[in-house]
Input
Amino acid sequence: MNSQFSAPYLKTLSLSPENQESPIHFLKHWKTPQDYFYLRNHFSYPLINPQNLFLSISGNVNKRVEISLSELSRFPSKTILVPLECAGNNRAKFKPKVFGEQWEEGAVSQGKWKGVPLKELLDQAGLLDGSKEAVFAGMDFGERKDLNESFYFARSLPIEKALHEDTIVAYEYNGKPIPYKHGYPFRLIVPQWYAMSSVKWLMNIFIIRHEFNGPFQTKDYVYYPFKDSDLDKKPVTAINVNSTIQEPLNYSIIQEGLQTIRGIAWTGTGTINEVAISIDHGDTWRKATLKYRENEKFSWVKWHFDWEAYKGEHTILVRASDSEGNMQPIKPYWNRKGYGYNAVQKIKIQVE
Output
């Protein structure tokens, strides 16, 4: 970090399981240091036996495959810079309020993940006809009190998404082995989908011929648009286009004169192609300057806007749009579990 004397810390939402926000407003690097990467857990951290670090692939395949950590590192690899965002990021902003971890803006972080395309591993096992989904089970295990039953954390992907060239089984983060709290030894990385899909402590991959119905697939991580009905429910998948103002901070006092407003923007569809700022409650919008990370198609975009600040209280709005025509809405898509918040972000400041 810039200062040798001080550093930001994670913001704790719960201790058991451990859920902590990244200090997103203070992170100016493309790669989030592991100490500042947000933590999202459903259960206690798993116990890992160093003598038994294998990933198994079974189910609707020609042959069951077991791959050790050392074997995985000998496969052709790729490295991708990708933001991971919790589907509940910004949940605290929904009105009316919804139940769940009250994340603000820090349940998103970005790093460089190195791993093997999942397709390479599935080719080793040999997919059989009729393969519909790949189910990914982590080592984290615990009781769901709402169901009075214990489960491993498990999620599925449509087979087409599992076979995408950029869906990888990662074993390194920012050039080092994946930290224990972020999924060591194996973590699935699914670019542009909310991070519940990027299963940590990956242990088993099952290929199935039907739709997976585990509770983290069909009960959680589902958009329910009505408070008392499951009508029109749909699964949470791709990240909604979103942005954050990192500087200045909300409700801060700044000086009159030239000020730079800064932040980041990201999307789960295409690429960010515009970020716009409004100082007049959305009546007019002015384009910010974008900075892309070269040769990284999934990376967030850094943006800045130079503003001649004048005295008084101001509300600053930011909205991002992407190459697929998606734009942050003025009002969020309310859903009763509080997923996918991506309304126009705003801060209030005072200029002296």
